[in-house]
Amino acid sequence: MSEQVKSRQRVQDHGEVFTNEREVNAMLDMVKQETERIDSRFLEPACGDGNFLAEVLNRKLNVVDSRYRKSLPEWEKYAFVAVGSIYGVELLGDNVASCRARLSKIVETHYTPVAKRGKNPAFLSAVEFVLQRNILNGNALTLKTVDEDGNDADEPIIFSEWSIVIGNKVKRRDFRLDEMLEGSASQQQFSLFGASGTPTSEWEVDKDTGALIPKPIREYPPVSFYEVMNVE
Ligand SMILES: C[S@@+](CC[C@H](N)C(=O)[O-])C[C@H]1O[C@@H](n2cnc3c(N)ncnc32)[C@H](O)[C@@H]1O
Fold it and tell me: I need a labelling partner for 210 at 20 to 30 A (CA). Which of 70, 112, 118, 127 fits?
């Protein structure tokens, strides 16, 4: 995004002023190690067309390229993990569409030189599916989804966690964003899908990080990440 402002009206109505590339990079450099960890989760609650998320994805995919470019299946698996770790909420539908398209293009740009013998349509479909689920049209203040005009649709924002469990198998678990944030507020600390503190019966402890997470509202059976869109 080179223009920082689309229109004066949008600035007045929605505070829409995009962050320029230099500032994005300077801010992300403050958490450089996390931006280069393939599975480190990022959520941007007013993501616009994805200035921060695009750069995070680009950095993660640079790491995937350097480690796995010689093995296409490994590259695809870790690129899937990178995409699945990036989350956004945005009020305006056109920004949501631009953000998803931009992230998708970044994957394609990295994928093209690696997939010399041809791209796998199943991989690209899985990426599209995850982007549809991870970049959501919603109101970050009410934590509800919104309709095309930005009006609350009265449905809670629900994010999916994508975890590789074994080999190519990914497990999807859905969580309400309001529940994740509620836990964080009461415990003063929050990381996406994890908050430190004392467990109650409503919470479970993440075995990898020791962090607290709310119970998922839905769990799906593990499937190959190439087939993640077929398990609804
Ligand atoms: C200042 S811009 C920042 C965009 C992007 N984060 C960036 O740094 O380039 C704020 C964005 O938040 C969106 N927005 C405004 N109110 C919102 C709300 N309640 N929930 C979600 N997004 C909102 C606007 O449409 C706009 O895209």
Answer: 127
